[in-house]
Each structure stands twice: as C-alpha cells, then as structure tokens.
Amino acid sequence: MASMLYNKMGLIPKQKPIRVMIMGQPGVGKTALLVRFVTKRFIGDYDSNLEKMYMYQVTMDSETVNFEILDTAAYIQYKSCNMEMNMRWADVFILVYSITDKCSFDDCSRLKFLINYNKKKRRLSTKEHLSDVPVILVGNKIDQQYDRMVTYADGKKRSQELGCVAFHEISVREDVDQAYEVFKEAYTCWKSMSYKNPKLKRSSSDNGAEAFFNSASRFISWPLVFGESAGSSSSRSEDTPEFRARASTEGHVQWRK
Ligand SMILES: Nc1nc2c(ncn2[C@@H]2O[C@H](COP(=O)(O)OP(=O)(O)OP(=O)(O)O)[C@@H](O)[C@H]2O)c(=O)[nH]1
Questions:
Q1: Where along the chain is composition biased (Basic and acidic residues) (predicted)?
Q2: What is the CATH number of the domain that holds 165?
Q3: Phi/psi of residue 239, nearest 5 degrees
Q4: 245 belongs to a structural domain
Q5: How many domains does the chain have?
Q6: What distance in Å separates the CA atoms of residue 249 and residue 233, rounded to the nearest whole number?
Q7: How far is ligand 1, taken at its centre, from the CA of residue 100, in Å?
Q8: What ligand 1 atom has the least distance to the C-alpha of 170?
Q9: What is the strand order of the sheet 52-60 is part of?
Q10: Is the ipTM above a cut-off of 0.90?
C-alpha cells in the first residue's frame, strides 16, 4: 500500500545498490565481462588504462537490482594506493582469470588474500566473519580450449581452497548467459548475506572509503548510468541506447569526459 502511494507520488524508495568489484590480471576479460552483462555485446578491445565505474539497473528474480560495478584497470590494481579503499567499498568481488593463462590463475590467490586483508578491519569491528566476504572465482575464455592451461577441476579446487562462494567457467565471447549468471550469482550472494545479517551496515571506515572513492573517482573514472525497464533479460541491450552509442562491436568504448 505504502509503495503504491510512493509510486503515485513519484517517490519510489531507492534500492540499496550492490557494489561489485571486478579484479584480475591484465587481459583476462574483466571489461569484456561487464560490458557483456550491461549491453549483451562482446566488444573486442578496450582502453585498459581506465578504471571504470558503472551503474546499472536490472530486473532479477522479479526484483529491481541496482548494480554499482567497479572495473579495476589492471595496472592501477598493482600501483594504486586507493586500492584498499576500493576493496572496502565493495560488497561482492568477482575474481577473473583466463583459463589460457596460468599466471592469471595463480594471481587470484594473492588477490583473495588482499581482499581478506583489507576487509579485516571492518570484520573485527562488526564481528562478521571473513567467510562472509563473497568472492566469486571466474575462469574466462573457455572458447579457447586448445590453449587451455587451467583445468575445470583445478579451478573448482582453488575456489574451495580460497573460500570463494562460487566458481564459474565462462566464455564472455561466446555466451552472454554465462556472463549474466556471474552477476546473478553476485546478487544472490549479496542477498543471502543481507538476510543472514539484516543489520549489516557499512562501518564508519567503509563510509570513509566511500567518500574517498567518490572523490577519487572523479579523477580516475566517470560513472555511466544505464537502465533496464522491467521485463525479460532479452531486452537488456535494447534499453541502453546511451551505451549503444558508445559501444560497437568494432570500436572502442568512449568514456565521458
Ligand atoms: N577468446 C576470447 N577472448 C576474450 C574473451 N573475453 C575477453 N577476450 C579478449 O581478451 C582481451 C582482453 O579483454 P579485456 O576485457 O580488455 O581484459 P581486461 O581484463 O579488462 O584487461 P585490462 O583492462 O588490461 O585489465 C580482449 O582482446 C578481449 O577481446 C573470451 O571469452 N574469449
């Protein structure tokens, strides 16, 4: 009843966004994954020197979900002093490696360690457990079977060893649904985490991270807002004309200046 009234007045309460951070070595397909999710398109090449922040609204399980997705530029991951802030900002992490690149696979262990380390302060203050940090391990490029260096079994085993909440093998190039499922999983984890701990609030240190993130992002990235009208997943790209103007299957994505 209250929501109907809100709707009539045009005052729809804003859903709390789910904040997702995508990490992984250069060239594993981080940008390709999120662009696939947002636009359904596979775009060949991207500017890898940009750290990009996306806001995207989508319907999942008949619910409106607001994603805020940070696509970390690999070179910034290793140099940036704000990496710690970015990690504290995120609710869910997607760790990507390429099944054709053993180094990128091994590096996921280091990244998982960093995530745990940076979340530790918050966990100590809120008495949450590290196992509550949802990290999804994703092996990309399974269309390149002949160049495979990491088996499915190895990926699955590593995911369990690292305490990841889920493991996916995907081809961003070949399968749009697989890309979608990764983000759906992120949403499911985030939702069950919120149910388990309904009082889960961002700690003051995380609010600090947010403030820092927002101010820093003005210099390193620009938010792009895309939306999806309620409906089937097949309409996703049709409802994002602004992005479509920027993205093509041949060209680069252009970023707002
Ligand atoms: N064969 C194949 N190539 C892919 C796939 N996903 C991405 N690529 C290619 O891999 C290359 C790197 O993709 P990006 O999305 O730029 O990778 P990234 O991890 O964002 O790289 P950085 O921005 O340097 O960190 C591009 O040439 C993509 O076209 C896939 O599923 N299969």
A1: 236-249
A2: 3.40.50.300
A3: -95, 10
A4: no
A5: 1
A6: 20
A7: 12
A8: 31
A9: 166-169, 135-140, 92-98, 18-24, 63-71, 52-60, 224-226
A10: yes
